Amino acid sequence: MRIGIDLGGTKIEGIALSDTGKELCRHRISTPQGDYQEILNSIVRLIQQIESEVNDTGSIGVCTPGSLSPTTGLLRNSNSVCMNGKAALADLQELLQRDVRIANDANCFALSEAIDGSAKDASIVFGVIIGTGTGAGVVIDKKILLGANAIAGEWGHNPLPWPQESELPGAECYCGKLGCIETWLSGPGMVRDHELYNNEYVDPEAIADKARFGDDDAEETIQRYEDRLARSLAHVINILDPDAIVLGGGMGNIKRLYENVPAIWDKYVFSDKVATQLLSPLHGDSSGVRGAAWLWSK
To answer: For residue 107, how many other CB atoms are within 10 A of its CB?
Structure first.
């Protein structure tokens, strides 16, 4: 049995999977706010609840925003800010008295979809989560590519490729640089772009709805977004050449992207034909917690 824990800013979700990937049980609790030790204690209690219900002991994988620094072993860039700078892995292992594996949420998303999701037949998978931020993970032959600095897939903090004059220098990103992909492709990025052109504050779902019903301003916003997404993913294809790109997060719910973006990226990819598929996630919001469980797949 494999247990996955998805540590989020507002909730902690736990799941138990059989060796074949069948869901055995699932539970969700609120994330204690601002209390590092209580967050760890809550994770331990959730694991104990799952193991008691299933009457079995499982391997434990944890999915979290942020990542462990390979230099210090401390967690960094978590949206549960009290976790940052803490030895979360070592402390959890001490509490549980067994091995634990921790991975970034985008890596877990990509792993879940590569193992038994929409990209299960792909050798190289680039899994993208686009919501309030923009993250990604790389999975090769069902294994996460971590990298020397544990930042493989940090695609959102590169500049928007082939920028137009009107896109320069770009908005300031929280990382301190200008014009990062995240500032254009995140949900807030689309909202900012639409507001800039139309002096109208509308959320991404409403923009997509308005475009579907013939609103010209919303349609132009979506078309600008599709071209920027195509350019940004073409950059990835030119470097990684994945079999599949899986698009998760709230922005992945805009259905037209799956047809329109591949039609656009052809002119940016350095190949006569682009075989890479752009796929929607099979497991959706469950991919993070399932991917955490699959951290023990090898």
So the answer is: 28
